[in-house]
Amino acid sequence: MSGYVFGTTDLVDEQRESMQRCLDPITFARLEDLGVGPGWRCLDVGGGGGSVADRLGRMVGETGSVLVTDTAPDGLCTRGNVEVRHHDIVTDELPEAEFDLVHARLVLLHLPERRRALDRMVRALKPGGWLLLGEFDCTWLRVLAAPSAQDGAAFSRFHRALCAVLEQAGADVEWGVHAYRAVQELGLVEIGSLAHAEPWPGGGDGARWLEINSRQLEERLLGTGPVTAGDLDGVRASLGDPAFVVSSYLTISTWGRRPVDGWQGRAGR
Ligand SMILES: C[S@@+](CC[C@H](N)C(=O)[O-])C[C@H]1O[C@@H](n2cnc3c(N)ncnc32)[C@H](O)[C@@H]1O
After folding, report:
1. Ligand 1 centroid vs 3 CA: distance in angstroms?
2. Residue 269: is its pLDDT beyond 70?
3. CATH architecture, domain 12-257
4. Which residue has a Cα nearest atom 13 of ligand 1?
5. What mean pLDDT, rounded, does the chain reach?
6. How many other C-beta atoms can be found within 10 angstroms of the C-beta atom of residue 86?
7. What residue spans define the domains of the chain?
8. Spacing, Cα 240 to ligand 1 middle (Å)
9. H or E, element range at 136
């Protein structure tokens, strides 16, 4: 199976909630920085639990509107100025030159066809419209403190296996870093990026998210080799213990603007 590995797994609602609690403050700050405001027409690709679409809906007000898409839109509901659409960013068309803002968080990282999807997202921007991506560099995550060296080593084996499972499905676990160049190659201007990392202590939202991932992907994780069922039990115990602390993933926001005039898209297209 390639693409998004968490789509049909258990605990998706809890996963979405912990993800949103970890990442919404970062994303919301970037939306403020870009000046999203009344009257904007926005697209949130792969909107998941809908927190970003809800926020955008409030920011753009009655004169603006938000389209939020997902291949699994069960966590989303149409209300007010927020419209939900079942949509696959890899295979389904988008309207061209329609949006003032196109946003995606932790979607393209998973998709082997991320460049095609990104190209489509950029073509959906109005001239002068903003693209905002929020993506991880998964290789950043480290054990910061552990009650024992064995706890730290078991977590590291688990995390290596998690990255291997994602990569087997076509993910780019360093996409957060690669996104800047991809945006540049599409001819956007005023490109910027900002990276964020913080400690994720056991028992907190970030640790809970990782623990959920360990359950959602248990079979695949055990299939990769180095991680054992005993490791996973230990890792889950560690992720509930405030004395066990990992760094968060490096969360990299990357943005760029479609030129107002003369934009041709990717060279040679
Ligand atoms: C890691 S979740 C992120 C959800 C949300 N963007 C957030 O950050 O809270 C990835 C989301 O992308 C959706 N997704 C996966 N493949 C997709 C595709 N080809 N087109 C659109 N959405 C997709 C999944 O269903 C899931 O909701």
Report:
1. 10
2. no
3. 3-Layer(aba) Sandwich (3.40)
4. 46
5. 95
6. 12
7. 12-257
8. 26
9. strand 125-137
| Contact predicate 136/250, CB 8 Å | yes
Find the helix or strand (DSSP H, E) in which 251 lies.
strand 250-257
Report how far ligand 1's centroid is from the alpha carbon of 86 (Å).
Answer: 11
Residue nearest to atom 18 of ligand 1 (CA): 88
What is this structure's pTM? 0.96
What's the token pair of residue 214?
A: 């360990």
Residue 1 has pLDDT above 60, yes or no: no
Q: Which of 19, 21, 15, 75 is nearest to 215 (CA)?
A: 15
| CA gap 23, 21 in Å, rounded | 6
Instruction: Give percent above pLDDT 90 in the chain.
Output: 90
Q: Quote the CA–CA distance of 179 and 244 in Å, as a whole number.
A: 31
Question: What distance in Å separates the CA atoms of residue 103 and residue 130, rounded to the nearest whole number?
Answer: 8
The alpha-helical segments, DSSP class H, found in 141-217 are 149-168, 175-185, 205-216
Protein residue with least CA distance to atom 11, ligand 1: 46
